[in-house]
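Could you show me some protein's one-letter sequence and the numbers that encode its backbone in two labelled lines?

___
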Amino acid sequence: MTPPEPVWFAGFHEPFLQTGWEIRTDRQVGGETEAQWAVDAEGVARFVGSLHRPGGVAFAHARAEQAIAAGLPETIEAFVVRVRGDGRRYMMSVMTADAHEGVHYRAEFSTAQGEWSTVRLPLPEFKPFFRAFWVAHGTLRPEQVRGFGFMVAGEEQGDFELLVDYVAALGPDGRGDS
């Protein structure tokens, strides 16, 4: 599928998006979740694993904290992602220049089992959080964006798989250059 014409576009065939990914899971808090992030020969990213945390909320997070070194133009209004999922709900996470404080922004989206879909995530849908808690930290400002990732979390245990074809940033005219 042809992606929109954005002001910023990340296809995973780009060398800068094939490295620098970090996986975080609930293992830090006693869980047993396993997860991997890899890019195939066609440039599609694959976030796959198994959620397992008896008696708690399991999670896995794949992220590239420094994928966007210079931030994005302030005209950006939304991210668009093309994904194929497994019927679970996922989150796109966005790290900002002050991510060292531990605050990231997340927006949720649904997937259909085995179907490709293009999801538009307006910036106001991204809510600030610190670990598992939503916090009052202001709104997401595009010029502060430095990285992004994908997360799955919940009490539903078992295997997950999210394929990501691309991530784009769009402005009010669908391009981000107005």
The CA atoms of residues 28 and 59 lie 10 Å apart. The two ends are 25 Å apart (CA to CA). The longest strand covers residues 158-170. The mean pLDDT is 85.
